[in-house]
Amino acid sequence: MILSESPAVKVGLSIAVATGLYGLSFGALSVSAGLDLWQTMALSLLLFSGGSQFAFIGVIAGGGSGLSALSASALLGIRNGVYGMQLNLLLRPAGWRKLLAAQVTIDESVATATGQTDPAEQRRGFWAAGIGVFVLWNIFTGLGALLGAAIGDPAQWGLDGAAAAAFLGLLWPWIQAKEPAAIAVVCAVVTVLAVPFVPPGVPILIAAVVAAALGLSGLGPATEGLKPDVDPYPSVVDSEKPA
Predict the structure, then answer these.
(1) Average per-residue pLDDT in the chain?
(2) Closest-CA residue to 133 (of 26, 8, 15)
(3) CA distance 22 to 15
(4) Residue 192 to residues 24, 196, 203: CA-CA distances in angstroms?
(5) CA–CA dist 222, 144 (Å, integer)
(6) Tens digit of pLDDT for each residue in 202-228?
(7) 22 dihedral zone (left: phi>0; alpha: psi -120 to 50; beta)
(8) What is the mean pLDDT of residues 57-76?
(9) Mean pLDDT across the stretch 91-97?
(10) pTM higher than 0.90 for the full model?
(11) Taking Cα atoms as reference points, which of 199, 157, 154, 205 lies closest to residue 26?
């Protein structure tokens, strides 16, 4: 298949653009928090997890120590480890691809991959979103750090809204039953209520815990959920299909 005709690649690249642009905000805020250009770029190149990066500079900007900033960042990065376990079973990367996959396992690449039902499309979506976000996030992080105050208040650009809208666009078509719709509404309310009281990035963790608790409670019919279901354990035949 020509990659430009792949639905998963198209979705992945559109998500990459929406999320990558948000790197402008991180770059500008990082410099204003006291980090220099190279420290800012190191965070985006090596840490490469938006929520963890914003948590890190948020603690630094508030006068916290490096250890406190690292702890807050690591707390938010736990979710990427959970993603990795799922995607290792879903995509089965091998050799050097496993190391690369670990680096680009983020919210966007996971959402794009698990939003597909065909194993080949899952792989295409994961790599398109992961690599696309990595490249654009770092480019715009550098631009934001270099331009600094020249771009004004990053919040006025609405880039955070663009990233959230991209996630909503991925999620919305999959909610085809009452139970997941109700869980989504509850989690949205919980997130809004938590935002004023906890550090950036933590509301999504709270919402995830609430979603897990509601899901495990067994509310609704046993067959009700996100449709179509994605099998996290693809058969050997499927996993050997060429990408």
Answers:
(1) 79
(2) 15
(3) 11
(4) 24, 8, 8
(5) 48
(6) 776 788 788 878 877 765 555 554 444
(7) alpha
(8) 79
(9) 89
(10) no
(11) 154
